[in-house]
Every structure is written in structure tokens, then in C-alpha cells.
Amino acid sequence: MNFYKSSILKPYLTTHTLAPENQETPIHHIKRWVTPRKYVYRRNHFSYPTLTPNFFLLSVEGKVKHPLIFNFNTLLSMPSTTAAMVLECSGNKRSYFDPKVYGEQWKDGAISQGIWKGVPLRHLLTLAGLESSVKEVVFEGHDYGPRTDLEGIFSYARSLPLDKALHPDTLIAYELNGKPIPFKHGYPLRLIVPQWYGMASVKWLKRITVIDHEFRGPFQAIDYVYYPHKEDNSEKRPVTNIHVNSTIQQPMPYQLLDTGTHKISGIAYSGEGKIQEVKLSFDGGKTWDSANLKEPYNSPYSWTFWDYTWKVNEKGEYIIMSRAKDSKGNIQPLKAEWNRRGYGYNAIYAIKVKVE
């Protein structure tokens, strides 16, 4: 085997920080419907927790008629559901906001797609018996640590409105791509929430608490909120559904190309509907050509691969733009809605290339 040849053909995660670990999927080189586990992006607020026997117990408490504690093996024996879905950090593409915002400067790779298997959350809630006053369900992970803006130690905890908690594909997951979830992605139990950004899918799940009021934990009320104004909190709203989006995977930004025929390829996805079309422009958005959509993975939450054959005979610099539209009528905007924490970037994707 030619060691040099085999090694250079393997992409690597792109590292932003190591403590806590935050690394991007090499999305420009992922051509599979299912992202290999070693290439799934990593997003953490704290250092990894220390695995103990308590990780294999999950309590359901609060406004329920029968508080319960489930052990791992019991969950494995329950009716299960499998769902393939996009998992995207709400800060994906944050580095493209103008003006710039603070936070991890993700480019395009805080996104992956996996096949998750687990017990539908609504099954556990049914067993526990919900009281009539229930409004939200809170999920607490085993990871914890300090924040820069508040004093004290905080666990990572998020809530879902009751209707989303009862969604048939909201899962207490224990498998990713046919194997136990890797520890760095939430083993042994992780909440998986379809259609929503990844902050909702709490890792290392410890406790489920059913409440009759609005949850105000810092990762709910401070973080993962759209603040459209720089100086005040007016018109704020929570981050929820994944925005319609597309990414050009090949060619790469600022790549040198020769004249002739080139295949432009990429992905498109949305949290509200299936991708209906992807169009490309080479003249600054004056005209648009339709890309070829590949048959999507058999899941309503899957991304869609697309490609386009580009014949270019004139040398020069070009801007290639991609714009996706979903079945709900959502279209990528020319400019993303700026917000001071940099969530939900989904502007028309654009790269520059030079033909020599």
C-alpha cells in the first residue's frame, strides 16, 4: 500500500477549541448520506463529563402522576424508532455574518447527518402520566461547568414545548449509525429532536423534568435566542427550527480551475420542509439555473445532495451562488438576518473561483 497516497485521501475534523472541544465536520468532502461517526461535528460548552454508573439511569419527574427511573437495559427493551436526520449547530456559518459577532467562528462544518435509534420520548411520558397543567419538558445533561457571564456552576439544560416533546420522532437515543452513541456525542443516552438546531438535542441525558411554566435556565433564556438588535433585547425570540440552507461542497472557495466542464456539487436542507429546488447563479443573481437534485435519503429530515454541470470557456474570476427552496416555500435570502449571537445563518451561499 502506498501510505502517502492513502493518508492524503482522508479528511480531518477542523478544530476550533480543545477545552471544551469544538470541531467541524469536513463537510466539503462528505459525499455520503450518512456521516461516518468519526466525522460528526463536536460542539461542547464544557469539558467532557466523567462517565459513572449514574449515566445509565434516566429519571422522569416533576408534573407527572408516576415519577419513574429507567435503567439503560430497560430502555433498550422498549419499542424503538429509527430516524435519519440532519444535526446542525445553530452557530453554523457564524463566521460569515457581517458585521462580525462573537462566539465560535464556525464555517460550514458544524453539521452532520446520522441515523439515530431510540425510544420515542412520548412513550416515557405516557408511562409517567402527564398532569393537565404541563407546558414544557426540561432535559438536563451530565455536563456542567462555569459560564463567563454568570457566577456559579451550571448543568447544560434545555426545554421543549409539550407538542415538540410529544413529536413521534423526538427520541431518547442510544444508537448512532447502528452502534452505541460514541461517548463524545452523548453516550449512553442523548435526546434527539428532529427539525430543530442541535442545541435542543441534549447529550449525556441525566434527568427529564416535566414543568407547568416557562423554563428559564441560561442555555434557554440567555443563549440560543435571536437578538436582532445590538444594544437591547427587544424583539428577541427563541432559536428553534433549522433554516433552509445550502452549501457548495465543490469546487472550494478561491480554487483555481481550467476552462472546460466542471461539476459543481453540494448539499441543501431545511427544518420545515423537504428541499424542492436548488438554483445556481454565475452573474450576481441576475439569472438562475436549476441544479440536479439527487434522490433524497428515505427520511423527511434528510439533507439533499445536488449537482450542476458548468461549462466555462472564458478565463476570469467568477462568483458561484447557490439558493435552496423548501416545500414550505422558504427560500434562502440574499442576506441572513443579523443577530448578535450569530445564530441561524442561511444567506445565499457564494464562492469565488478563478478560471485560468
UniProtKB/TrEMBL annotation:
This is Molybdopterin-dependent oxidoreductase. The keyword Protein biosynthesis does not apply. CDD domains: SO_family_Moco_dimer. Residues 239-355 form the Moybdenum cofactor oxidoreductase dimerisation domain. The lineage of its organism: Bacteria, Bacillati, Bacillota, Clostridia, Eubacteriales. Pfam families: Mo-co_dimer, Oxidored_molyb. Its cofactor is Mo-molybdopterin. Residues 45-218 form the Oxidoreductase molybdopterin-binding domain. Gene3D superfamilies: 2.60.40.650, Oxidoreductase, molybdopterin-binding domain (3.90.420.10). PANTHER family: SULFITE OXIDASE, MITOCHONDRIAL, SULFITE REDUCTASE. One of its GO terms (biological process) is sulfur compound metabolic process. It comes from Clostridium bovifaecis. InterPro entries: Ig_E-set, MoCF_OxRdtse_dimer, Mopterin_OxRdtase_euk, OxRdtase_Mopterin-bd_dom, OxRdtase_Mopterin-bd_sf. It comes from the Bacteria.
